[in-house]
Amino acid sequence: MAPDLNSLPPSSASAPINSARVAAGSRPTGGDAVQKQPNILFIMADQLAAPLLKMYNPDSQIKTPHLDALAEKSVLFDSAYCPSPLCAPSRMSLITGQLPTKIASWDNAAALNPEVPTFAHYLRGAGYHTLLAGKMHFIGDQLHGYESRLTSDIYPGDFGWVVDWDKPDTRLEWYHNASSILQAGTCIRSNQLDYDEEVMYRSTQFMYDYVREGPGKRPFCLTVSLTHPHDPYTIEQKYWDRYEDVDIELPKVRIPNEKQDSHSKRLLQVCDLWDQDFSDGQIKRARRAYYGAVSYVDDCVGRLLDVLKQCRLDKDTIVIFSGDHGDMLGERNLWYKMCYFENSVRVPMMIYQPTRFTPHRVQSNVSTLDLLPTLCDMVGAKPVPGLPMDGISMLPHLEGRPGNDTAIAEYMGEGTVSPLMMIKRGPWKYITCPADPPMLFNLQTDPQELDNLAERLSQKSEEEMTDDERASWAVFSKFEVEAASRWDMGDITQKVLTSQRYRRLVWSALIQGQFTSWDWNPIDDGRNKYIRSHMPLDDLERRARYPPVDTYGKETSYVTVDQAGSHGQ
């Protein structure tokens, strides 16, 4: 978004607006002469499975040169998990540092209470200009601490997508279905491409405008949230063509429907996949389109980093990259997310601040829940004591010291009939649900999650077990005790049911007569952005140019521009 020219003060080529002189011969920078806090650029991808990326899997076929280069310079987390394998609950937990049950973020149609603080509140209170470009899936309040939104959301901010536990066998029309796989391939344009192109334009324009502001501007925290590589599996020809020479791998694990675990069986039903028998060709087309969409995200990341560097902001900006959840992409015959297998629940995470942290890999389990307390630690904005906080700061990990090694996740969305919970600690992954048998996997010895130790060992007496099996059974028993202490499943179930019933009633009323939805629509007034007769042309052009130049076009060491930016107003 170009700036509002009404906000531009007169400038002079001989008198810099910025009173802080720059050293002779130096180039102008994107920040003020003294900036107390670094900027923050937080980039999110949607439905990006960490196990499929080359930074985590050297044999990966996906081409992500920009992300790979960033990972080499960052602190890279090998075992980062989302707090819920569904868009909205995962994102609400990420921004608040609290698990879904603590903030009643049950599904994709649950409203986050606006009194719950987010990292945007904490950073804004610490002097940051907090901005959001892209998807966040807010229901109700569309800001939640962000001072500005540069785009509208791609998804509805209403109660239309409520899950119904009162009718567990009913498949709602808005659930995922087989069309994304059956129709996979190329496109010239799509809803998601339209959206992410706008997100990229607004985000890069903000950085261009920010760097042209005068003194006294606040550091920014810009969240750029892309909707790719989320299904539908379709992408532009040029990204499809990047995999022309690649024999797309088929899923490593195939499990027949009748041998699936209980939750996976429900997912196959609610996603209308139970009776589908996709050919290898159909699976490869869907995976190829997904790979292309990931490469598209990679190019977006490269573009953002290039603009950051062009604006000379790269030296004083923290860069964080992560996602909301993954995609099974045909593994175990499952697609999309909504389960706790690695492709669905494990996300990429890297934090780049070379002036402070040495690049290294972190093996310990962490969660995107942990970003709020981590950001607070990084900028000195401590969470308020006494307020709920499930996230644990990753600062020790960033500094190369021992830290937390546990990730918790909760899921009450599509495919569930009661709460489905996960604890990941060390190599162990424990999954529990009142409606299903428990599951325990040792990912160190069983990375494909094929040996459910909870089920297998329950059929043996202790005398029949090996020493390793007895040790595994002891781990399982401890998890069972911890889960019973951590979650009151009956109470959670009643809260979910009550919320679902409330929201279904409210929704049925709101769609009668004139429909009004919560939404955010940024104002874009061209009359005050570009050249108009009431504006002095030469003055406008000089003030809008970056880097600034003097009367004769020579780059000057003064910042002679004070320009409002694309702040979503």
Describe this structure in words.
The protein is an alpha/beta fold. It folds into 2 domains: 41-409 and 504-522, Alkaline Phosphatase, subunit A (3-Layer(aba) Sandwich); 420-486, Arylsulfatase, C-terminal domain, CATH 3.30.1120. The chain has 16 helices and 15 strands. The strands form 3 sheets. Strands 1, 2, 3, 4, 6, 8, 9, 10 and 11 form a 9-stranded mixed beta sheet that branches. Strands 12-13-14-15 form a 4-stranded antiparallel beta sheet. A hairpin with a 2-residue loop joins β14 and β15. The chain is globular and about 90 Å long. The termini are close together.
Please state the CA-atom Rg, rounded to the nearest Å: 25 Å
Estimate the helix proportion, in percent: 25-40%
Structural class: alpha/beta
Name the CATH architecture of the largest domain. 3-Layer(aba) Sandwich
Whole-Å distance between the termini?
Answer: 10 Å
**Largest sheet descriptor:** 9 strands, mixed
Q: Helix count, per DSSP?
A: 16
CATH superfamily of the largest domain: Alkaline Phosphatase, subunit A
Q: How would you sum up the global shape?
A: globular
User: Which ranges are low-confidence, i.e. pLDDT below 50, for 5 or more consecutive residues?
Assistant: 1-34, 560-569
Mean pLDDT: 90
CATH level-3 fold name of the largest domain: Alkaline Phosphatase, subunit A
By CATH reckoning, the class of the largest domain would read Alpha Beta
Beta content comes to 5-15%
Q: What is the count of distinct domains?
A: 2
- Count of individual beta strands: 15
GO molecular function: metal ion binding; sulfuric ester hydrolase activity
Protein name: Choline-sulfatase
Keywords: Hydrolase, Metal-binding
Pfam family, one: Choline_sulf_C
